[in-house]
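okkk here we go again. third time trying to get the S-adenosylmethionine bound version out, last two times i messed up the smiles copy paste (missing a bracket lol). double checked this time i swear
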Amino acid sequence: MARRAGAFVADTPPGAGLYLWLDPSGLHLCRAGRPVSCLRVDFLGGDQGYRAGQLGRQRELVARACGIRGNAAINIVDATAGLGRDGFVLAGLGARVTLIERSPVVACLLEDGLARARQGGLDGIASRIRLVHDDALPWLQGLPADRQPDVIYLDPMYSDGRRRAAAGKALALLQTLLGDDGEATPLLNAATGIARDRVVVKRQRRAPPLGERPPDYALKGRSTRFDVYRVNAARRADAGEY
Ligand SMILES: C[S@@+](CC[C@H](N)C(=O)[O-])C[C@H]1O[C@@H](n2cnc3c(N)ncnc32)[C@H](O)[C@@H]1O
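finally!!
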């Protein structure tokens, strides 16, 4: 797995920098130092496990933003999968979710976390998730018309540095690995031409909309905001849906 991510494989951790660490509890991304800080994708416990456990009691803002109602099995492409937390919540609410992640290291962490979720009794949720290691822009552009998802979900790293403060330790470590995601506006522009129902962009509560493109509406949480871009009704009418 680590070799596939392009890593040099050794038995002992290095004295400096980032490295992958595999032990019986899973694959970790670690930063050398005192103390060493590590993250792994863990849908069973911790932050992500807690959120998964809340699904029955608390309708998450992200679910409302994506238009999940009842048990309708909508198709969602999470085009910036990251640690899969949002994608796992959406799958937990019944959506079929395709996670797209372009970083080989993060894709390996996700693959490992999903495998442990399956073994740990979350098979039902994990079975609704498909992981694709690819750049979402060409991947979305290459989708045939009959495979277009209902919703495309975007959560790119912010480039203004504010996310670092707002994010938990895990996302801060991820940001050390990946840097900023660069210009994500082309992804938004492509997504609004591909999604059948809407595109949802997660932003920091006070951040400007992605690409300064105003959403149709926004749902605000304590620290984050979900900008919702409804797909042009005329385009859906062209496709014979009305
Ligand atoms: C802020 S993280 C997403 C966090 C995620 N929403 C979660 O709940 O864990 C952004 C991720 O998107 C990925 N990414 C950015 N642009 C991408 C693209 N064009 N295609 C695929 N992945 C991309 C980055 O590698 C990074 O892992």
